[in-house]
Write a structure and sequence with these properties.
The chain has 10 helices and 8 strands. The chain has 288 residues and is an alpha/beta fold. The protein has a single domain, classed as TIM Barrel (Alpha-Beta Barrel). It has an 8-stranded parallel β-barrel, surrounded by 6 helices. The longest helix has 19 residues.
């Protein structure tokens, strides 16, 4: 079972509701499903299709709106994998997740148009591209499928992005680049409500750049009201602030960012620990 047979309007509405936070709710949670042997957080690595699907179903049950399936690590210094290997890792997982939950929201975390296209056919609803749609073929895939898309900012490539990143005005430069790409998609025919923007925390940024991007997040909204996604879970930024050198010890600091995201109206948090985030956000909602 691949793509569900629903009208385009129904599909757009389902994706849009998963991208935009309502007035009554807190942040949507996007659970990370790493079908990789080398993602930076070792405990998030899924070695088999069965393990990945079991973890995905658990995350949905814990409160995730989205599952983000990735077959290529994009941590700093990561090496690329072949398209064939990436497809081998992600397509069976997406297909089985879609079979298990026909209307659950699934994202494919990829920089490659071939992988994105095959993933959409297998049942994915959104393309999460850390390269910010640098490949023109990726733009064509998204426009043809009329699927959701998350456009992330990255300076350089995973192999080089942390080699002395520099900006004159980080928040301004990142927001302008992301808004230009998003508006190009809208002009080409993709509804603005299907687009999320991610400032790319840790992707070619120093600590002060990351903090500035979080604090000046409203620059990403634009007049169109694009959704905003943050991927901060257990990253080195948390370690730099807390002194925790290992990702497995950074959950507490990550939850601090999530509390700030709740307060600031951020739409989506991409996280490794769905249950902990869901519980914390429920408490904050009651206290608001």
């Amino acid at each position: 079972m691949g793509r569900t047979f629903e009208s385009l309007d129904l599909r757009r509405d389902r994706i849009s509701r998963g991208l935009h936070r309502s007035d009554e709710d807190s942040c949507h949670l996007m659970g990370v499903i790493n079908v990789t042997p080398d993602s930076f957080h070792a405990q998030s690595r899924m070695q088999t299709v069965e393990d990945a699907v079991t973890e995905g179903l658990k995350m949905w049950n814990e409160g995730a709106t989205w599952l983000d399936v990735g077959g290529e690590s994009t941590r700093p210094g990561a090496q690329t994998v072949t398209i064939e290997e990436e497809l081998r890792r992600v397509i069976p997982v997406i297909r089985e997740l879609r079979r298990a939950n026909p209307h659950g929201l699934i994202s494919i975390d990829t920089r490659h148009a071939v992988v994105a296209s095959a993933s959409i056919e297998a049942g994915a609803d959104l393309v999460n591209d850390v390269s910010g749609l640098r490949d023109p073929a990726m733009i064509d895939v998204v426009l043809e499928a009329q699927c959701g898309v998350c456009i992330m900012h990255m300076q350089g490539t995973p192999e080089t992005m942390q080699d002395s990143p520099k900006y004159m005005d980080c928040a301004k430069e990142v927001s302008e680049q992301l808004l230009e790409t998003a508006r190009g998609l809208v002009a080409a025919g993709l509804p603005a409500e299907l687009i999320a923007l991610d400032p790319g925390i840790g992707f070619g940024k120093a600590l002060h750049d990351n903090l500035e991007l979080l604090q000046r997040h409203e620059m990403l909204r634009g007049i169109e009201g694009f959704a905003i996604l943050w991927g901060v879970s257990r990253k080195s930024m948390i370690g730099a602030i807390t002194g925790q050198s290992q990702p497995e010890h950074r959950l507490n600091g990550t939850l601090g960012v999530a509390a700030y995201a709740h307060q600031e109206g951020i739409d989506i948090l991409r996280v490794h620990d769905v249950e902990a985030h869901a519980d914390m956000l429920k408490v904050l909602q009651v206290l608001d």
